[in-house]
Recover the amino acids of this structure.
């Protein structure tokens, strides 16, 4: 990655001015240093304005009714789908709106469960997961890409297997050949860990899954806001991601599925808006994506999310990634100089995102977070919805600073300065 | 003329009141059943095919009418259904437009109609407009995106029934019990 492609200081200053919340002052007039983008990102004014405009001028139920507002709202909803799909390298019909990445993975497991129970037309039989089949996940998963697979395995009688993480948090790809056996039907893995920041070698995972004839499911919730993302080029079968991690609102996310798979898959959720003909006995279902969108959708949020991807697109994800990469390198170099810090994840910025979780010897993460908060610095403390990877790395919880496109080198330095004071404040190690 | 009056031209209301092709033929080569999920409107449509005559066959055959020798010609279109005036008029106009054309010509005219419906009131080029005959009167529907599905309902059934007929599938369309 070349330095020249990164955002300039002036551009970052202009970006910061687009985010009203970054002007917030905390107790004592302290400016906010927001290092918790991995949990949820902040929203630029264009996102807030798009949702306000929709609410004030176009709000109506979509895909029903024939009045003017119904038409405008439907157009806004479907235009949003097209924009978000294009942003992740998908066709519009390949993007199903869900409540978030968790909603997306649960929708998929529900649909696969339905196929396993014999629902759907003939082509859906290929999705059936049978007793003795294998579902493979990894030790680096967020709970949202682990627990639904545990449940599906329990419902179908399939065996759950997983790829372990090494001491640096990276997946042990050498174990792939044993983890993915001939009975493996599906491999679900994260594009980037929300704890270690390690970026998964998707090509290697996809190739191994394909050799076994297994489907692939990518958790792109962490990568979508930080890397150029082209799901069709990555060759995964399904993917999940969330608006609220990529400058959009909460309450909406997406399930990507290759169109020929979505066309064959039975619905996971059923009800209104996803049917063609309903009698007292049975129903027929719409084609994708609407087959998977039962009930009233989060239309206002879809409009906001489209504004968010428009904002990211205008900056260019290559440049966003280059900016965050430079900050990540600065952050990792800085914490390496602080006594008692152990980084949970790769120690350098290569193939790594700017989520940096660390253990500070002798101080509980909650106490670290409290001290930093008093300096106006927002980080996440706890297990970050990823208990197994913490356990694999020998800790229960950690303190995580996670970067976004609006962060600056000065903020990273402020975090480093404050972190350096934590152990002495708590009377540890000096 | 207001947009509303443009959509509900007298020609359209005439077709809706006295639809052509309504009443299902006894025998058919392909059948389709389609619904508009927004409103529950539905159509059951049947087509009959015949092979175009060999050169010098039928006296008085017009070039382009009846198709290339050996091509499949849409001999009959009949339908039954429930729907709004737009869906009924569109199916009626479609019947007049496609009957007697070979399947390639039917596909071309179906493409022109779909383009007209997507045009958001901008219309289509003159050649496409002329190819649509009476159905060009439905141009006003394209200003109402929520009604485009109504105008396309019959055309969806035609596409499906013709494809089945061409593939030799003369099985009855599946119609859910109790509808």
């Amino acid at each position: 990655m070349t330095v020249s492609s990164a955002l300039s200081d002036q551009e970052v200053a202009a970006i910061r001015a687009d985010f009203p919340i970054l002007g917030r002052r905390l107790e004592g007039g302290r400016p906010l240093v927001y290092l918790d983008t991995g949990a949820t990102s902040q929203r630029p004014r264009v996102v807030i304005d798009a949702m306000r405009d929709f609410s004030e001028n176009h709000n109506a139920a979509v895909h029903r009714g024939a009045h003017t507002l119904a038409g405008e709202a439907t157009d806004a909803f479907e235009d949003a789908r097209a924009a978000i799909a294009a942003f992740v390298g998908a066709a519009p019909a390949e993007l199903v709106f869900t409540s978030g990445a968790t909603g997306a993975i649960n929708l998929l497991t529900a649909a696969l469960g339905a196929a396993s129970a014999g629902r759907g037309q003939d082509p859906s039989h290929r999705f059936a997961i049978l007793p003795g089949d294998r579902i493979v996940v990894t030790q680096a998963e967020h709970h949202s890409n682990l627990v639904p697979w545990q449940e599906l395995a329990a419902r179908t009688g399939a065996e759950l297997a997983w790829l372990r993480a090494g001491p640096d948090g990276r997946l042990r790809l050498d174990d792939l050949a044993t983890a993915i056996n001939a009975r493996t039907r599906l491999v679900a893995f994260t594009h980037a860990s929300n704890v270690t920041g390690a970026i998964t070698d998707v090509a290697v995972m996809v190739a191994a899954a394909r050799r076994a004839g297994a489907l692939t499911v990518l958790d792109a919730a962490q990568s979508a806001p930080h890397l150029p993302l082209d799901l069709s080029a990555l060759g995964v079968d399904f993917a999940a991601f969330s608006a609220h991690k990529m400058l959009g609102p909460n309450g909406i996310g997406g399930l990507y599925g290759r169109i020929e798979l979505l066309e064959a898959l039975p619905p996971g959720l059923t009800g209104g808006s996803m049917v063609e003909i309903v009698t007292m006995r049975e129903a027929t279902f719409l084609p994708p994506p609407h087959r998977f969108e039962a009930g009233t959708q989060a239309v206002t949020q879809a409009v906001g999310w489209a504004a968010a991807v428009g904002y990211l697109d205008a900056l260019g994800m290559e440049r966003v990634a280059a900016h965050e990469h430079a900050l990540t390198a600065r952050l990792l170099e800085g914490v390496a100089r602080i006594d008692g810090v152990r980084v949970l994840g790769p120690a350098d910025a290569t193939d790594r995102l700017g989520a940096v979780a660390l253990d500070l010897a002798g101080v509980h993460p909650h106490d670290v977070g409290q001290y930093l908060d008093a300096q106006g610095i927002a980080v996440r403390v706890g297990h970050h919805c990823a208990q197994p990877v913490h356990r694999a790395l020998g800790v229960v919880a950690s303190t995580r600073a996670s970067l976004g496109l609006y962060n600056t080198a000065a903020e990273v330095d402020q975090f480093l300065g404050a972190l350096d004071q934590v152990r002495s404040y708590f009377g540890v190690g000096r | 003329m207001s947009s509303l009056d443009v959509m509900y031209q007298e020609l359209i209301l005439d077709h809706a009141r006295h639809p052509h092709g309504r009443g299902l033929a006894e025998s058919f080569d392909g059948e389709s059943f389609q619904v508009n999920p927004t409103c529950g409107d539905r159509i059951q449509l049947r087509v009959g095919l015949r092979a175009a005559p060999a050169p010098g066959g039928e006296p008085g055959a017009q070039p382009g009418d009846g198709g290339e020798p050996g091509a499949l010609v849409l001999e009959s279109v009949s339908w039954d259904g429930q729907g709004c005036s737009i869906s009924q008029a569109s199916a009626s106009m479609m019947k007049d437009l496609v009957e007697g054309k070979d399947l390639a010509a039917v596909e071309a005219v179906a493409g022109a109609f779909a383009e007209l419906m997507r045009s958001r009131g901008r219309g289509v080029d003159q050649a496409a407009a002329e190819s649509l005959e009476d159905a060009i009167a439905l141009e006003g529907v394209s200003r109402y995106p929520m009604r485009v599905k109504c105008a396309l309902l019959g055309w969806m059934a035609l596409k499906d029934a013709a494809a089945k007929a061409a593939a030799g599938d003369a099985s009855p369309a599946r119609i859910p019990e109790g509808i």
Observations:
- The mean pLDDT of chain A is 95.
- The longest strand of chain A covers residues 184-190.
- The longest helix of chain A spans residues 68-87.
